[in-house]
């Protein structure tokens, strides 16, 4: 008799548990609002944080995806018509907007040391330099990043071609932003886009798509360590030459340049390396193997002088030294470490010192070490957004179509059409993935007419891809961003040439 009672109790418990359990899926359209206060630049401000999901709709009005976002709005300011809105994207493609969210512009930043390395306990703390004092901020996560998902999330019904490509990404995000701006009543606000890495490609294309397809005009675009695939995927005379000054910067940081350079400040020697790269190295590489061995050896010696590499290793590469080899080679015979791809201040340990490229990216593993626990706990415990869906730091978006990537020209066209639109580049000197001189080159190519130079600016920092992880650069970069936003407001000036 007791066995039967036990069986009934067990069956009843399992039935109740199954009835209460939920499918592991994200809500298509939902918001959670919390209230907060913080101190920025010595002044206390109050703000609301809205976390939620907003649908992406197809032509029939059916949801095909939902995007997770976090929207910070200052609550002690009444008139949003004069209040800028900063729309923030990271890159990848396939990366969540976590990086700038909890390390750069948002009201909370990682609990890390002053150079950006992980420390425990993990988590977040107040960001005393956030630009929330001058602009409201929304951090947007494209499809399959963070908690954003397609509908359905998997299977043959997922129309990947509508999301996973340069132009598809721009099209659906422009439409999504139209809905977001409408829902939040921000049509009258000055608007700014900020994009990091591949996000630079994304916001360059969005600038024109928002103007021409959504009739939404911007005041500014900020490109943080942007990826310019036109330059990066070009022939070696261009791509190798514009990456070369980064070699100088990284070698200087590790103290392996000749004494004549090492005893100077970084910003004193970089112009020398840039001039060499543009006026000597680029035309030499354009000749391929069709110049004398004597000239090749002289050029290799000069490259060694500015890079910390050996003349012999440069000659073995026919002067065309890959960045991956540089990360492996620079400290190979000096300290036995590799250096980081996206931030060459970071050191790695390979299984063997021999080889042509590092085993792993030490900077990325360090960042994931600190960012992943921080964003998961912050969203759940402070912003009160609850879900069992995994937060994708990097989501499945491959294969990604780069077909018809004209985003650099899109940005130029957007600037030409809109006299209010200003553009700023922010990059770290020790970034070997999207190098600082590549950003300068991109900036020069945006304006071949030379008529918009006053609306283009460049800022460099003594760190890497995410320059804001270093405390000194966090402060300076936010100050530069704050000044850019304020100075890009028209203050009554009409939009005309």
UniProtKB/TrEMBL annotation:
Keyword Protease found: yes
GO biological process per UniProt: proteolysis
Keywords, sorted A to Z: Carboxypeptidase, Glycoprotein, Hydrolase, Protease, Signal
Any GO MF annotation of the entry: serine-type carboxypeptidase activity
Domain of life: Bacteria
This protein's record includes keyword Signal: yes
Alphabetical list of Pfam families matching this protein: Peptidase_S10
UniProt xrefs under InterPro entries: AB_hydrolase_fold, Peptidase_S10, Ser_caboxypep_ser_AS
Signal peptide (from-to): 1-21
Alphabetized PANTHER family for the sequence: RETINOID-INDUCIBLE SERINE CARBOXYPEPTIDASE, SERINE PROTEASE FAMILY S10 SERINE CARBOXYPEPTIDASE
Name of the protein described by the UniProt record: Carboxypeptidase
Species name: Marivirga atlantica
């Amino acid at each position: 008799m007791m066995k039967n009672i036990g069986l009934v109790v067990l069956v009843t418990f399992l039935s109740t548990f199954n009835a209460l359990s939920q499918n592991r899926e994200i809500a298509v359209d939902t918001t959670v609002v919390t209230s907060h206060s913080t101190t920025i630049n010595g002044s206390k401000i109050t703000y609301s944080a809205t976390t939620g999901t907003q649908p992406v709709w197809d032509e029939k009005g059916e949801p095909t995806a939902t995007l997770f976002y976090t929207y910070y709005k200052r609550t002690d300011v009444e008139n949003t018509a004069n209040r800028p809105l900063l729309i923030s994207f990271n890159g990848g493609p396939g990366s969540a907007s976590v990086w700038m969210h909890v390390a750069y512009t948002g009201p909370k930043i990682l609990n890390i040391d002053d150079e950006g390395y992980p420390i425990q306990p993990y988590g977040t703390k107040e960001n005393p330099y956030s630009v929330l004092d001058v602009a409201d901020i929304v951090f947007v996560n494209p499809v399959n990043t963070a908690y954003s998902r397609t509908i359905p999330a998997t299977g043959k019904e997922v129309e990947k071609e509508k999301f996973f490509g340069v132009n598809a990404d721009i099209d659906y995000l422009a439409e999504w932003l139209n809905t977001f701006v409408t829902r939040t009543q921000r049509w009258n606000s000055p608007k700014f886009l900020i994009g990091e890495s591949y996000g630079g490609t994304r916001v360059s294309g969005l600038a024109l798509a928002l103007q021409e397809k959504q009739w939404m005009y911007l005041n500014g675009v900020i490109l943080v360590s942007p990826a310019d695939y036109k330059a990066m995927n070009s022939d070696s005379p261009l791509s190798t030459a514009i990456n070369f000054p980064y070699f100088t910067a990284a070698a200087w940081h590790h103290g392996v340049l000749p004494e004549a350079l090492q005893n100077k400040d970084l910003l004193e020697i970089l112009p020398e390396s840039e001039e060499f790269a543009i006026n000597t190295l680029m035309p030499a590489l354009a000749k391929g193997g069709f110049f004398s061995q004597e000239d090749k050896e002289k050029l290799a010696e000069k490259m060694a002088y500015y890079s910390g590499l050996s003349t012999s290793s440069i000659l073995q590469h026919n002067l065309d030294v890959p960045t991956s080899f540089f990360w492996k080679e620079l400290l190979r015979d000096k300290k036995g470490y590799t250096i980081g791809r996206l931030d060459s201040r970071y050191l790695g340990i390979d299984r063997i010192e021999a080889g042509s490229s590092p085993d792993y990216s030490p900077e990325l593993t360090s960042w994931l070490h600190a960012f992943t626990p921080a964003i998961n706990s912050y969203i759940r415990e402070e912003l009160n957004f609850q879900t069992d869906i995994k937060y994708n730091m990097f989501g499945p978006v491959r294969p990604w179509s780069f077909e018809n990537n004209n985003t650099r020209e899109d940005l130029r066209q957007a600037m030409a059409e809109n006299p209010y639109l200003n553009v700023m580049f922010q990059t770290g000197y020790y970034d070997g993935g999207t190098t600082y001189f590549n950003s300068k080159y991109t900036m020069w190519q945006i304006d071949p007419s030379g008529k918009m130079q006053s609306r283009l600016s460049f800022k460099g920092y003594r760190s890497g891809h995410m320059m804001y992880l270093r405390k000194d650069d966090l402060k300076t970069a936010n100050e530069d961003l704050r000044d850019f936003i304020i100075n890009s407001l028209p203050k009554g000036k009409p939009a005309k040439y």
